[in-house]
Amino acid sequence: MAHYRASDSKREHFRRYLEKTGVVDSLTSVFVSLYEQQEKPANALEYVKGHLGAVTLTSADTEALQQEVNDLRQRCACLEEENKDLKARLQQYEPASEDGGTAN
């Protein structure tokens, strides 16, 4: 019997957590919207995901985004290297002096 009470206590705590964080209201709203649909969608899970704002990416989308990330990282590395080289070249023509003027 004690195990049953502990289980109920955990369930009640979890239920309050879901209510407090708005999960219950969000799910209720989506389910009511689904219930009120004249023509039920073929895939109820996709309907719920779509109305909860879940993003569904295909593996092709994921691969394309991963490739874009890799390309941008390479471009960033090249630009950082170019920036470093240009700063070094600039230092040759404008060496810094302590008084703020140019050195002769």
TrEMBL record:
<dbReference type="GO" id="GO:0005634">
    <property type="term" value="C:nucleus"/>
</dbReference>
<protein>
    <submittedName>
        <fullName>c-Myc-binding protein</fullName>
    </submittedName>
</protein>
<dbReference type="InterPro" id="IPR026060">
    <property type="entry name" value="AMY1"/>
</dbReference>
<keyword id="KW-0175">Coiled coil</keyword>
<comment type="similarity">
    <text>Belongs to the AMY1 family.</text>
</comment>
<dbReference type="GO" id="GO:0003713">
    <property type="term" value="F:transcription coactivator activity"/>
</dbReference>
<keyword id="KW-0539">Nucleus</keyword>
<feature type="coiled-coil region">
    <location>
        <begin position="62"/>
        <end position="96"/>
    </location>
</feature>
